[in-house]
User: Which sequence fits this backbone?
């Protein structure tokens, strides 16, 4: 493939000319590329966010232990209000567990006002409670090391008067399983779409070769090399892929920014990946992928329909 | 320069061979007419020369090199040494005369400067300098074939292969094309012309090779057409 710049200009010009000549097929190709890559981008963004959530939960070295209350259905609780002394004993027992750095008692009233703060401007949601407080007294237990969190949680769970124990890893495991499902499902879907994309591009290029078969025949007779003849068709495939990728990223970028704004407004403490952190890299990646898909699509066509 | 050695060609699904046992030798600078009834194998013989087809058996030598053994990737470089002319001109109708001739140079990466030098010279030779910027589709048949000749010779080929170049032309234009081919021959190119133009063959008194049923039936210096046309 000779790298004569003029030949490249010619190839791009021919490719664009060919795309406008069969504009409907070109649009179909671009749309197919765009849809495939949009799904891919969505799957990637979703997976990224789940990873991000997992990481932010995982980094917490805190164990949350809820204490028994009157209405607790947990079999280890005997459905009685704990006395202040009992609560103190529980705290002391927790402090004796190796690896515990500190324990803080959070009363149910304190928990409610904390929740009030977290909801911020949406705190009217809590007005539906009619002054009732559904929360429990709890203990915030800090571990010295994130590795010890699981062991501490296990030990705390065995203490009498403790109802349920939560810690980051629980969420992380669920999140991981969910992320995995999204990844595999997404990859399967994207693979199918990629096959459809390549076939559509290849079909477009086939028509393009057909439209220019006379020219191609003459090129062969006057001694044009295979690569010279293929170049504009390759270029056409690559451009279809790149245009499709740009459309996909335009729409995805717009959509994702909207979703992020919406999420952060509605659920302020939800950890989301900021659009500006990912969109640039994703655009680059998808444009390259679009170009590759286009090149592969045209190569398939050229191998079958352009015997040179 | 050209040698056919025991060449046979049978197309797939054909009952009988198109060419069979062809032995033929053409020297550098010769002008040769290939004649014979329709379907006798003239076009196949031409196609073997510019390697559009491969022989089923035998060798086709060009300057001692067996072109049937050429790798596919080397075929373009063979064709750059040849000029090929067809009955149907094979021009790009929506492009100008200049573009059509330049096309042969452009798609083999010749520099713009060379193109601007060679194309007008070639058009001058075929007498179409004044039509440089006309579209090919606006020209008469005779003019179109002259454009095709200009395109064939723009690279100074060593061999010009013409397959029925006057098949679509009236006698006057046919003569003009044949005259051009003779000029090209005088400038040093070997010229092989497959034709049905009886009068021209008879008048020009060049070497005539007659192909009948896939075989060389006659091969005469200063020959005649020899068939009722």
Assistant:
């Amino acid at each position: 493939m000779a790298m004569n710049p003029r030949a490249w200009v010619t190839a791009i010009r021919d490719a664009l000319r060919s795309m406008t000549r069969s504009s409907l097929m070109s649009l179909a190709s671009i749309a197919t590329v765009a849809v495939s890559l949009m799904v891919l981008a969505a799957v990637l963004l979703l997976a990224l966010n789940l990873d991000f959530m997992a990481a932010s939960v995982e980094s917490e070295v805190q164990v949350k232990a809820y204490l028994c209350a009157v209405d607790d259905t947990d079999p280890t609780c005997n459905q009685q209000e704990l006395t202040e002394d009992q609560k103190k004993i529980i705290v002391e027992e927790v402090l004796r567990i190796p690896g515990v750095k500190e324990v803080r008692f959070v009363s149910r009233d304190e928990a409610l006002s904390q929740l009030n703060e977290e909801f911020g401007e949406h705190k009217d949601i809590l007005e539906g409670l009619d002054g009732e407080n559904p929360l429990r007294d709890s203990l915030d237990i800090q571990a010295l090391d994130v590795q010890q969190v699981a062991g501490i949680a296990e030990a705390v769970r065995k203490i009498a008067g403790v109802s349920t124990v939560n810690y980051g890893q629980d969420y992380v495991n669920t999140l991981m399983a969910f992320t995995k499902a999204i990844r595999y499902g997404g990859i399967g879907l994207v693979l199918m779409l990629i096959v459809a994309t390549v076939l559509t591009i290849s079909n477009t290029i086939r028509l393009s070769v057909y439209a220019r078969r006379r020219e191609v025949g003459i090129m062969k007779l006057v001694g044009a090399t295979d690569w010279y003849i293929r170049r504009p068709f390759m270029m056409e495939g690559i451009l279809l892929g790149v245009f499709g990728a740009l459309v996909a990223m335009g729409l995805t970028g717009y959509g994702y920014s909207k979703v992020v704004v919406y999420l952060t407004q509605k659920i302020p403490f939800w950890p989301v990946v900021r659009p500006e952190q990912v969109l640039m890299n994703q655009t680059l990646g998808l444009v390259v992928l679009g170009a590759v898909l286009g090149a592969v699509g045209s190569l398939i066509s050229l191998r079958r329909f352009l015997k040179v | 320069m050209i040698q056919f050695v025991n060449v046979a060609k049978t197309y797939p699904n054909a009952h009988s061979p198109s060419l069979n046992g062809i032995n033929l030798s053409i020297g550098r600078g010769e002008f040769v007419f290939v004649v014979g009834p329709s379907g006798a194998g003239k076009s196949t013989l031409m196609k073997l020369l510019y390697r559009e087809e491969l022989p089923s058996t035998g060798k086709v030598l060009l300057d001692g090199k067996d072109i049937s053994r050429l790798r596919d990737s080397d075929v373009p470089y063979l064709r750059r040494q040849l000029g090929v002319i067809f009955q149907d001109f094979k021009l790009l109708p929506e492009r100008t005369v200049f573009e059509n001739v330049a096309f042969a140079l452009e798609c083999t990466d010749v520099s713009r400067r060379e193109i601007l030098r060679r194309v007008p010279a070639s058009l001058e030779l075929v007498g179409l300098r004044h039509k440089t910027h006309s579209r090919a589709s606006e020209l008469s048949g005779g003019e179109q074939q002259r454009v095709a000749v200009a395109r064939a010779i723009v690279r100074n080929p060593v061999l010009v292969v013409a397959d029925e170049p006057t098949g679509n032309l009236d006698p006057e234009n046919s003569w003009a094309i044949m005259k051009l081919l003779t000029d090209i021959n005088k400038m040093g190119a070997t010229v092989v012309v497959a034709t049905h133009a009886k009068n021209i063959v008879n008048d020009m008194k060049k070497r005539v090779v007659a192909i009948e049923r896939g075989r060389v039936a006659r091969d005469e210096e200063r020959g005649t057409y020899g068939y009722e046309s």
Notes: Chain B touches chain A through 21 residues (CB under 8 Å).
